[in-house]
Amino acid sequence: MLKEQVIETINRLLIEEFEIEEEQLQQVNENLMETLEIDSLDLVDLVVIIERNFGFKVVPEEMAEIDTLQDFYDFVAERAQ
Amino acid sequence: MNRVVITGMGIYSCLGKNIDEVREALFKGKSGIIYDASRKEMGFRSALTGYVEKPVLKGKLKRRDRIGLAEEGEYAYVATVDALEQAGIDMDFVQNNEVGILYGNDSTAQATIEAVDIVREKKDTTLLGSASIFQSMNSTVTMNLATIFKLRGINFTISGACASGSHAIGMAYILIKHGLQHQVICGGAQEINAYSMASFDALSAFSIRESSPTEASRPFDSKRDGLVPSGGAATVILESLESAKKRNAPILGEVIGYGFSSNGDHISVPNVEGPVRALQMCLKDAGVKANEIDYINAHATSTPAGDMNEAMSIDQVFGDAKPYITSTKSMTGHECWMAGSSEIVYSLIMMHNSFIAPNINLETPGKEAAGLNIPSQTVDANIDIFLSNSFGFGGTNASLIIKKYTGE
């Protein structure tokens, strides 16, 4: 999957499933949890969404390494190859 | 001791999604029962069920609040929103007072089963997502609603089989009467999906009058052949009279009696002695005589044994007094954990509109019921005081008496 497709898919899922506003997705270099207003329970659901749409399972330790939305795009794009 | 009144009600049932729709259905004697072919494919003996549409909550509730709700929680949420609106209880009031919640529920089948299916398939529990546990615990309804509405009073679920919704109101009544709570959201919720009814169908307890679904639930009729499962949710707001008057809340009725008992007998077949004690305790608590009750909303589920025993217990307690008696289950089917609360709502609607909804499908009363005053057509009638019965598996019995509030 191309990186642009990954970013587009992630954004679509965040908007549709997490009900996040498009403007919030502009802040790609800010802390992911703060900008998207998601908490630890939401991270559990993010793992499910990744597995369902990109076919791989994220382990908690890997999630801990992700700080910004850009980090998240990069992480998924790399694993989705 | 405080007087306890009802200041709001809400309903989401197979008769309608709100009070107005339900009033119309009750007055016309409409049935909410359908034939669900998918149950036959699953292996059900009876495909009959009440039908309730899934509420659309996206846009009404934010995601985190919404996803923890299983089917019965969604119904309970919708019914509670309406009840709180009628009662005039807003978020401001909730923040400044300790409003409690006691809600009846006794199953979470679909949420639990779907979770297990995912684990079995994926062999990984993280793929259940964050909401699964909040949907599948027995207290799912109260834990979610207490969170959504930010309640700060009493908070737990009451499981008493088909008397759950009635005991929830009874327990709230006791708390308010004794000054431990001033406002309590009460109710009963019931999932209607096939998973939740499979093991009940296994008892061959459901009617198999599949050729005419709307005629299958026929409490007290000599040709009844079993109950029809149904569901949804109903909410009533109980409040101390003092609190209701202080904030000028509407007063829909006064709870004046609660009686309960356990049969100590068969796990599924009700007896006569247990319900008699619950009825007598209720009348004594209310300080009214049997002949002061204008209307009894019977438990009667359309089972051969159950209806017969209830008729006998009513006859024993009410004797020569011949109050109107109907079972609204003739129209709704058996709403199980919801029934104790929904039947209070149905009876209040009748009280406010001076009519008694018919016990439909009553063509020839069974002989135990022949001496009872059971109208099979809608009746214009003034109801000052009504009594509602709910009995459940394990022999749990509840009776409630509600009086019209006249300002005194």
Regions of chain A with pLDDT < 50 over 5+ consecutive residues? none
Give me the secondary-structure category of chain B. Answer: alpha/beta
- CATH homologous superfamily annotation of the largest domain in chain B: Thiolase/Chalcone synthase
CATH superfamily of chain A: ACP-like
CATH topology of chain A: Non-ribosomal Peptide Synthetase Peptidyl Carrier Protein, Chain A
Would you identify the regions of chain B where 5 or more consecutive residues have pLDDT less than 50? Answer: none
Structure notes:
- The complex is a heterodimer of chains A (81) and B (408).
- In chain A, 63% of the residues lie in helices and 0% in strands.
- With 81 residues, chain A is mostly helical.
- Chain B has 408 residues and is α/β, with parallel strands linked by helices.
- Chain B folds into two domains: 4-246, Thiolase/Chalcone synthase (Peroxisomal Thiolase, Chain A, domain 1); 257-403, Thiolase/Chalcone synthase (Peroxisomal Thiolase, Chain A, domain 1, 3-Layer(aba) Sandwich), CATH 3.40.47.10.
- Chain B has helices at 19-28, 37-42, 63-67, 71-87, 91-96, 109-122, 132-136, 140-148, 164-177, 194-201, 241-246, 273-286, 304-318, 329-332, 339-353, and strands at residues 4-12, 33-35, 48-50, 100-104, 155-158, 183-190, 232-240, 253-262, 295-297, 324-326, 355-356, 379-380, 385-392, 396-403.
- In chain B, the strands form three sheets. Chain B has a ten-stranded mixed β-sheet, sandwiched between helices.
- The mean pLDDT of chain B is 97.
- Chain A binds chain B through residues 17-19, 39, 41-42, 44-45, 47-48, 51, 57, and chain B through 62-64, 67, 124, 126-131.
Gist of the model:
The complex is a heterodimer of chains A (81) and B (408). Chain A contains five helices and no strands.
Topology readout:
The complex is a heterodimer of chains A (81) and B (408).
Chain A: H1 3-16, H2 32-35, H3 40-54, H4 60-65, H5 69-80
Helix pairs in contact in A: 1-5
Chain B: E1 4-12, H1 19-28, E2 33-35, H2 37-42, E3 48-50, H3 63-67, H4 71-87, H5 91-96, E4 100-104, H6 109-122, H7 132-136, H8 140-148, E5 155-158, H9 164-177, E6 183-190, H10 194-201, E7 232-240, H11 241-246, E8 253-262, H12 273-286, E9 295-297, H13 304-318, E10 324-326, H14 329-332, H15 339-353, E11 355-356, E12 379-380, E13 385-392, E14 396-403
Parallel strand pairs in B: 4-5, 4-6, 9-10, 9-13
Antiparallel strand pairs in B: 1-7, 1-8, 2-3, 6-7, 8-14, 11-12, 13-14
Helix pairs in contact in B: 1-15, 4-8, 9-15, 12-13
